[in-house]
Design a protein that fits this description.
There is one protein chain. With 282 residues, the chain is of the alpha+beta class. It has 2 domains: 135 residues, PAS domain (Beta-Lactamase); 124 residues, 2-Layer Sandwich (Beta-Lactamase), CATH 3.30.450.20. Helices cover 29% and strands 29% of the residues. It contains 7 helices and 13 strands. The strands form 3 sheets. Strands 8, 9, 10, 11, 12 and 13 form a 6-stranded antiparallel β-sheet that branches. Helix 5 packs across helix 6. The two termini are 38 Å apart. The relative contact order is 0.13. This is Calcium channel protein. It is found in: Cell membrane. It is a multi-pass membrane protein. Keywords: Cell membrane, Membrane, Signal, Transmembrane, Transmembrane helix. It comes from Pseudomonas moraviensis.
Length: 282
């Protein structure tokens, strides 16, 4: 396996910091735990300097469940890690990042010392499950070192759901065939964490695109029900028949957690299509 391939699967970059997050944990809890672990590492580094790297790079007090401390220098070299990126200690990881992530990496390296704990968010492959998910990282520069702790964010927000719906609706209006093909092939950014797009032809009332379940294509949307047997498709169609957009709440399986959860869907009419994106409530 080549170096770049290893990096892709290990999820190694400046902001690598967590394994697969427990879906039951809230973002608030993860945030507090990540900051606490980082502050603990910063205090330890203050007392021990670079000798702290040994403690950071082993399983122990600087590994908290899915979260762990990692350190890079301002040239992009991995110096310490309590997670899978420990395999790259001593290597420059700055040049192996995707183009859209290189700027975030370089910006973080330029943060002046004394600015306190910083944070950033991005999308990256989770080494534990192979899925591209959102991550959040807290980091602080101490001299030529940057200490960091991060965690995955498995739940998308209402704002992200609206943004994805707007993107899908706009793209569908510009390129109907290409957009439907992209949604069904899981490309074009229409599948984000636990967010996905589905499209129904209002003339036939059948699915023409679905971001996670291609078996639904060509099935009758009006007959779709939730796991408890409550109608889902029929009330959505009735709603969008009266207005060009709307919202609907129901129960549905979360593709990330694999559990049936409460879902809030945003609906929009685009020509003869119903386009929808929903987010899951914790």
């Amino acid at each position: 396996m080549g170096f770049l391939h290893k990096v892709a699967w290990l999820g190694v970059m400046l902001f690598v910091g967590a394994g697969q997050v427990n879906a039951a944990a809230t973002q608030k809890d993860d945030s507090k735990a990540a900051i606490a672990l980082l502050e603990k590492a910063l205090a330890y580094y203050h007392d021990n300097g670079d000798k702290a790297f040994a403690a950071f790079s082993r399983q122990g007090e600087f590994v908290d469940k899915d979260r762990y401390v990692f350190v890079v220098d301002t040239k992009g070299v991995m110096l310490a890690s309590g997670g899978p990126s420990s395999a790259l200690i001593g290597r420059d990881v700055s040049e192996v990042l995707a183009p859209d992530l290189q700027k975030a990496f370089k910006d973080a390296l330029l943060v002046p010392e004394g600015n306190g704990i910083q944070q950033a968010e991005y999308r990256w492959q989770n080494w534990a499950d192979g899925k591209v998910e959102r991550k959040h990282v807290y980091y602080q520069r101490i001299g030529q070192r940057i200490l960091a702790v991060g965690y995955y964010l498995p739940r998308a927000s209402a704002e992200q759901a609206k943004a994805l719906l707007d993107k899908a609706a706009t793209d569908l209006g510009k390129n109907e065939k290409g957009t439907l093909t992209a949604i069904n092939s899981l490309k074009g950014g229409y599948l984000q964490d636990d967010l996905y797009v589905f499209v129904v032809d209002l003339d036939t009332q059948r699915y023409v695109a679905h971001g996670t379940n291609l078996r639904l294509i060509n099935t009758d949307f009006s007959k779709i029900k939730d796991p408890e047997g409550k109608p889902v498709g029929e009330p959505m169609l009735a709603l969008i028949a009266k207005q060009d957009d709307g919202e609907y709440e129901y129960r549905w399986k979360n593709p990330v957690t694999g559990k049936v959860e409460d879902k809030h869907a945003y609906l929009k009419k685009v020509g003869h299509f119903l386009v929808a994106v929903g987010y899951y409530s914790p």
